[in-house]
């Protein structure tokens, strides 16, 4: 069974990005085993504690290692990748073996796709930076359109993401393409 790990770039319970991830999980249905990564308790990157890696880092790395593909749903904070997500990705970007000349990480060669919900730009600035980071981390970033949700004031007021037909279509298309991409590249 294909395994997809979803990562929300926001830790808050009512996160719109988490709502988007839940919807994508529903769309994937029984075609893959989908889980949403819980990383709220990981420490800040600190090279003093890098080797051996803290228990929580070992756990999240294991979840990434066991997945066939990673789907990141992220807002943008000040036009950038939110700090909590950047911290997680910094940990995931590090070699598993100290001094490894090949710098193999759990993300090396991993199929990845990105989506995001945010203000007017639909978190596209963060996605642009995430995309550069995915290249730098030597993942296999799927090409093509990615789901971008520009939240409305009604949504901010109600804290509920509205799934318009356009958004459903975008997300569905990305889900279908990602499943196919993983089958070919996983
Ligand atoms: C520190 C901070 C910075 C933010 N900066 C931006 C921004 O640059 N662009 C944007 O569209 N929204 C920005 N927002 C608003 C977020 O898009 C909004 O809070 C969104 O709901 C966060 O995603 P979540 O619902 O998944 O937690 C910012 C929010 C915070 C807390």
Count the DSSP helices: 6
Helix-strand pattern, N to C? EHEHEHEHEEHH
CATH topology: Rossmann fold
CATH class, named Alpha Beta
The biggest beta sheet is recorded as: 6 strands, parallel
For the termini, the CA-CA separation is 12 Å
Strand content: 15-25%
Tell me the CATH architecture: 3-Layer(aba) Sandwich
Oligomer status: single chain
Number of DSSP strand runs:
6
- What hetero molecules are in the model? flavin mononucleotide
User: What structural class do helix, strand and pairing data support?
Assistant: alpha/beta
Q: What count of domains describes the coordinates? A: 1
State Rg.
16 Å
Overall body shape: globular
Helix amount: 25-40%
Mean pLDDT: 97
Describe this structure in words.
- With about 190 residues, the chain is of the alpha/beta class.
- The protein has one domain (about 5-185): Rossmann fold.
- The protein has six helices and six strands; from the N terminus they run E-H-E-H-E-H-E-H-E-E-H-H.
- It has helices at about 15-30, 55-65, 85-90, 125-135, 155-160, 165-185; strands at about 5-10, 35, 70-75, 110-120, 140, 150.
- Strands 1, 2, 3, 4, 5 and 6 form a six-stranded parallel β-sheet that branches.
- Strand 1, helix 1 (about 15-30) and strand 2 form a beta-alpha-beta unit.
- The protein is globular and about 50 Å long.
- The site of flavin mononucleotide has 14 residues, from helix 1 and strand 4.
């Amino acid at each position: 069974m294909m395994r997809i790990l979803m990562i929300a770039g926001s830790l808050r319970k009512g996160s719109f990005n988490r709502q988007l991830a839940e919807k994508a999980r529903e769309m994937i249905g029984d075609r893959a085993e989908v889980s949403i990564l819980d990383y709220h308790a990981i420490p800040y990157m600190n090279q003093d504690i890098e080797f051996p890696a803290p228990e929580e880092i070992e756990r999240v790395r294991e979840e990434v290692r066991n997945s066939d593909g990673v789907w990141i749903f992220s807002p943008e904070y000040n036009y950038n990748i939110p700090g909590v997500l950047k911290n997680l990705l910094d940990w995931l970007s590090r070699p598993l073996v100290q001094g490894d000349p090949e710098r193999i990480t759990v993300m090396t060669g991993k199929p990845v796709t990105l989506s995001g919900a945010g203000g007017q730009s639909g978190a596209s600035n963060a996605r642009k930076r995430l995309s550069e980071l995915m290249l730098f981390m030597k993942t296999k970033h799927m090409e093509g359109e990615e789901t971008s949700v520009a939240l409305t004031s009604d949504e901010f007021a109600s804290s509920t993401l509205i799934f318009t037909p356009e958004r459903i279509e975008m997300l569905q298309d990305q889900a279908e393409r990602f499943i196919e991409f993983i089958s070919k590249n996983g």
